[in-house]
Predict the structure.
Amino acid sequence: MKEDIEEYSTERKDTLSKFREGMIASLPIFIGYIPVAVTFGLLAKSTGLTLLETFLFSALVFAGASQFMALQLIQGGAEPIQIIVATFIMNFRHFLMSSHLSAILPAKEKPWLLPFLSFGITDESFAYLSTSHASKEVDFILGLEYSAYVSWVGGTVTGYLFGNILPPILQASMGLALYTLFIALLVPEAKRSLSVAITAVIGGLTHSCLAWLKIFSPGWNIILAILIAASIGAWIIDEDEEEDQ
Amino acid sequence: MNNIKIIIGMMIVTFIPRYLPLLAFSRLNIPKPLKKLLRYIFPAALGALILPGAITAIPNYPAAAAAGIATAIVCSWFREEISLTVFLSVIVTLISLYLFGY
């Protein structure tokens, strides 16, 4: 009985220390999210969302790029179904990340934690986990993910409530923060693969053309641009340059 | 109400692809052409999100936006550190806006 308790407490300590290690590893993500999350809160407010809606956006969806896209589309008067379809297409990439994680996770330990672990998957945490030195233990990953989550949700609410206190010139500069985040995610990938770089350029140009032509609504414009560019990239440009993972 | 509908819908379609492979807990066999397509969706989406939005991110001051974008590209090329890129570009944009008399 006594042994049981001791075993339990060491296991618990282990869990906590791994969780803490994950949180520490997450620090660059935590800091990087803040200006972007604050911008999201600010922008959500100017788009006319309530505080509760803004909070729920970050707390329930937790996928930054698609949240900003949704704001753009809400502003443009898109139908909910268009926004949801665009989100599905855009966030389907998590499917690949998740299947990669399921292959590298050590064991089937703690299956009840897996829904939480999957909910926390983001481009940034995945990028970190893909590096060879990163721990692959469930507790560590949770620490990494949920520290980023706190920063994202906290930053969103802070931006909504207090963003207006910031000087207007800083608010205007932060309007660009989101795009610099996208660039920070894209450039390292584009640097390694020319087909990825070309695909991104095609995506941008196609979307610009469609936005200028105004044949379809903004919701379909972005869906079409993504699908066209990704198809060209995958089936025309890509020539099996590398098989990663 | 519409917004809540959007949020719930987005939550569902975002969570399912995140959870499904871990639920199955085995490497799902995705056909190769589909896998290729999936690999290119993210760069395609990032491209479509950056353009044309970034150009008009700061109304009436496209040059300041261009300075911030250029900073982001250069910075992320040499240092793959997201927070550094975001902060530096915001600072450069801020200085440019100041110089352009915002």
User: Anything to note?
Assistant: The two ends of chain A are 45 Å apart (CA to CA). DSSP finds 13 helices and no strands in chain A. Chain A has a mean pLDDT of 87. The first helix of chain A runs from residue 2 to 25.
